[in-house]
Amino acid sequence: MKLISACLLGAKCRWDGNHNQNDRAMNLIKKEVFLPVCPEQLGGLSTPRARQEIKGGSGKDVLDKKAKVINQEGDDVTEQFIRGAEETLKIAQLYKIKEFIGKSLSPSCSCIKIYDGTFSGKIRNGRGITAELLTRNGISIRGEEDL
């Protein structure tokens, strides 16, 4: 069993209430068992919600209290993102899951690159908060582009 960003399987949990259904992920669920998660919803954020980006770093920096997650309205939603990452980790540990497949560019789930925190569309290297926390706890991560 593997964890996967729920939006990749068609769950309408994206910030704007839509999904990011991935055809490769949909084909994989015919052969493998996936447990879909949306860390942002697990952290208490509603759907839809204002766009959010990590300001001042990456998921690593947020977990190390050196950066914050700010939504497009200027609200600090760092606490909800950390809570969602922690809840996702609890699920992974409960089911002894060793791999997570995350949504690219997500401030929660991305495994390689995230938006830079300016809401300008610029991208930087770095993991999302959930991907970083899972990595710190020995869970392998990969992005949707690696399916």
Provide structural commentary.
With 147 residues, the chain is α/β, with parallel strands linked by helices. It has one domain. Helices cover 27% and strands 20% of the residues. The protein is built from 5 helices and 8 strands, in the order βαβαβαβαβββαβ. The two termini are 15 Å apart. The model has no long low-confidence stretch (mean pLDDT 97).
Features of this protein?
about 150 residues, alpha/beta, 4-stranded parallel sheet, two-stranded antiparallel ribbon, 5 helices
Helical residues, percent? 25-40%
Number of domains: 1
Can you tell me the overall shape? globular
Question: pLDDT below 50 for ≥5 consecutive residues: which ranges?
Answer: none
Report the radius of gyration as a whole number of Å: 14 Å
Which structural class do the helices and strands define?
A: alpha/beta
Order of secondary-structure elements: EHEHEHEHEEEHE
Strand arrangement across the biggest beta sheet:
2-1-5-8
Describe this structure in a few short sentences.
By secondary structure, this protein is of the alpha/beta class. Helices cover 27% and strands 20% of the residues. It has one domain (2-146).
Blueprint of the fold:
Blueprint: E1 2-5, H1 23-28, E2 34-37, H2 39-42, E3 52-55, H3 59-63, E4 68-71, H4 78-94, E5 99-102, E6 113-115, E7 123-125, H5 129-136, E8 140-143
Parallel strand pairs: 1-2, 1-5, 5-8
Antiparallel strand pairs: 3-4, 6-7
Helix pairs in contact: 4-5
